[in-house]
Amino acid sequence: MVTEAMAEPKEILAQWSVSHGNLRRFFEDLALPPIDEEAQRAAGEAAAAAAIEETFGIGIEDFSVGVHSVGGAFAAAGRPHLTQPDPDVPVDTGAAAFFDVDNTLIQGSSLILLAEELAKRRFISVRELAPALVKQLRYRLSGSENPADIAEGREQALSIVKGKSVAELQALCKDIVDRHMLTKAYESTVDLAAMHIAAGQQVWLVSATPVQIGQALAERLGFTGALGTVAEEEDGKFTGRLVGDILHGPGKQHAVAALAAIQQLDLERCTAYSDSINDLPMLEMVGSPVAVNPDRKLRRYARQRGWAVRDYRSVRRLARSYLAPAAAAGAVAAGVVWAARGRR
Question: What pLDDT score was predicted for residue 332?
Fold first, then answer.
């Protein structure tokens, strides 16, 4: 039988999340004297599943993947919070703001910029870079992301970094952020984040981009932390396997749910910012969703729902954000063709 303490879903989720999905440990911490293993596992999983469904509207499997994504991000950073709150600012416990990165915080695609810079610095080859740029071009032209492209892109990215140095990539990401990404940040979005920090709230970046990029951005801008796509590490090298899931669409929702459980956040008091209709699962789970530089579908949806809409793009920036990926993809494709002809 379960104690009265387990009646509160938030407490169940916090305990279960901190245990990283270890149901035996979770249940033993909150239950009466141990029962047999099979019954214990079933009861613990049922209690957790009910709490997850009630609180976040997702299944226990999706929540568990989110827990692994958050745990992987914490491990990559070496600590849960990259920036500690100002001791002179009263903490607004339970409130946080979640920011997408591409076209919300910075102009354009962080993944394309990262890939281009890594190719220039010979961390990856031009041939490895080309497929990612072609997929981004297809997304820019269609306005929607192909699930097959996402899955294939994930496998390509993991195979590219397999066996490469974690420390080297972290150093490169910090340098790329300092030299190329901070200058592309929308000042008005940074100001929004600063407003939340001044109110004593946590500020998290949540992006499908590699977690090292998100964490370098968060650290430079003084944000609480960043969740991103996490590649597994072993002995200082990438294994070619994924931790959790790619933080795209539902993946963001699952990771934010896990983060909210671990940090004991009240999502009704939280805010989420994004430019893309693909982030609807994350936007709809918070009390205050905001469309920033929205695509056509998100703008229309936000207006129908009465959400706040903020657009910080100038005509020039709008044109560059759509034409630059096309130009980059074309240049890389031409380079690959030229190199192939040269070999023949």
Answer: 44
Q: Which candidate, 105, 139, 66, 95, places its Cα nearest to that of 274?
A: 105
Between CA 50 and CA 45 the distance in angstroms is 8
Cα angle: 161, vertex 167, 169; to 5 degrees: 45
Which tokens belong to 18?
A: 């901190």
Catalytic-labelled residue, pool 102, 245, 275, 279: 102
Does the annotation mark 86 as catalytic?
no
The catalytic position among 62, 100, 245, 279 is: 100
- Helix locations, the chain, DSSP H: 9-18, 23-30, 37-56, 60-77, 110-120, 126-142, 147-161, 166-176, 187-198, 211-221, 250-263, 280-283, 296-305, 315-343
Q: 15-60: per-residue pLDDT in tens?
A: 555 554 454 454 445 433 444 566 656 666 777 788 888 889 999 8
| Strand pairing report for 225-234 and 237-243 | antiparallel
Q: Which amino acid is at 57?
A: G
Cα torsion through 57, 62, 67, 73, rounded to 10: -110
DSSP state of 264: T
Predicted TM-score (pTM) of the model is 0.80
Return the number of other C-beta atoms located less than 10 Å from residue 304's C-beta. Answer: 8
Q: What is the DSSP letter of 97?
A: E
C-alpha closest to that of 51 among 32, 69, 64, 37: 64
Bin 293: left if φ > 0, else alpha if -120 < ψ < 50, else beta.
left
Q: Which two tokens stand for residue 187?
A: 């000042």
245 is catalytic: no
